[in-house]
Specification:
Length: 516
Amino acid sequence: LPICVSMCVHECARTYALWDASLLERAQYQCCTCLWTCVVCACVVCVCEFRPCVLGTGARGDGEEEGEYHHVVINRSQKVTDVYQQLERLGVGKFGQVYKLLERASGRLCAGKYYKARSAKDKQLARNEIHIMNSLHHPRLVQCMAAFETSTEIVMVMEYVAGGELFERLVDKDEELTEQTCCWYVQQMLEGLQFMHSSGVVHLDLKPENVVCVSPTCTGIKIIDFGLAQRLDPSAPVKVLCGTPEFVAPEVINYEAVQFNTDTWSIGVISYILLSGLSPFLGDTDDETLANVTAARWEFDEEAFEEISEDAKDFISSLLQRDWRRRLSSEGCLSHRWLNSRRRGVTKTLSKERMKQFLAKRKWQKTGRALLALKRLTLRGPRKHNTQRPRSPPPHNELSREPEVLSAADQQLQTEPSFSKVLGDLEELEGSAVCLQCHIQGTPEPEVMWYKDGQAVSVSRRVRIEYEEDGNCSLIIANASPADSGQYSCRATNSLGVCRCSASLTVLSLIAIQRR
């Protein structure tokens, strides 16, 4: 048994379930050797984020500690920069931008969602999201940790989830993709979703980009982005025109009242794509996609689903129902035999090529046109169900050449490492968190090493190295002391060359400051 599990069993045997060490074989199917199953409740746990499973509850064993959750009250007396150091930009959206943040006191990494607050309406939308997230304390849902408001913006400080988008992770050459793996991820999504629904909240924007991995090394996931989430009240039906065409339910397009089962439709679409790499409703244009959705016109691709179990296909069929009343609820999904079978389908490795093509198509959609076409529907009214219109097949022809094109482009674009942003000299107070940061570019991806006064830096509880896929590289030192002062350098190496940049760090003791 892993040390952390063994210690728990030894110290808490009367309180917590024992763990079945014979499940290592299944863990390999899940792309991760850190997965174990509780022999009492049959729940799977990832020991990378280990929390024991309490006897008799049947609860998941990989949740967060109670202390990790925060009831956020918007801070109007401080700026976000008073508490956090702003690092590189992580992304941009219609609402504003997301930056990586470093908590000055603890050295903890977070993500800051910066809302443009040009009007009272903009501010109210951000406040609504914070209010909803205060009720969504669950390990499968990303957490809001703090919030700051000024006259021009609202910043939500979120937990930093470092593993990247789930679908991008699955096409990685080192990841094994099986039906069991897909089942495990769908189960986690539903755990988070069921908690949301039990709290009276519907997500309304479930899609691959909003399912992210907890870390690069384990298979835990979290649902993110609650910007479109709504609290449902049976006495006040909610109608929306928002979402992403491939993943929205028919009632959204038809401007009918949304339901909790509006989310489970999206789970059905995501499950279909996970298992096949194909999008069940995708057309040549958004209009064609929306027409396919409103008609609930889809089928299992014969080749893609040849090796997929009947239980998995029944699960998807139970969700992609045009009438929301006929769909499984999130609770019903968790009781479905596909998610509760010991075998959980065949273990044959699934092809990743169609998934790569799907992701390429998604990227082209993002850069070529807006993802959201639904607001145009307000000009024409709700769509009518039309079963006679033939479905336009997804444009796979141009995608079939993608690996060939990317391979040729990769060879032409290979470059030696270089720094687009170099290290800068820093002077910090004793006890603060220090972040030395640079940006590296080069193809193939460079290997990175950090040095202090010519000696390699060792990672510890206090010293962390972060290297993002986009080339941002950081050396983070928590609770800095004068002994950390020195000359720091970052070296990047690939097959074409090597580059290095350096900077000095001076950590001033409080005594030295007082003497000045």
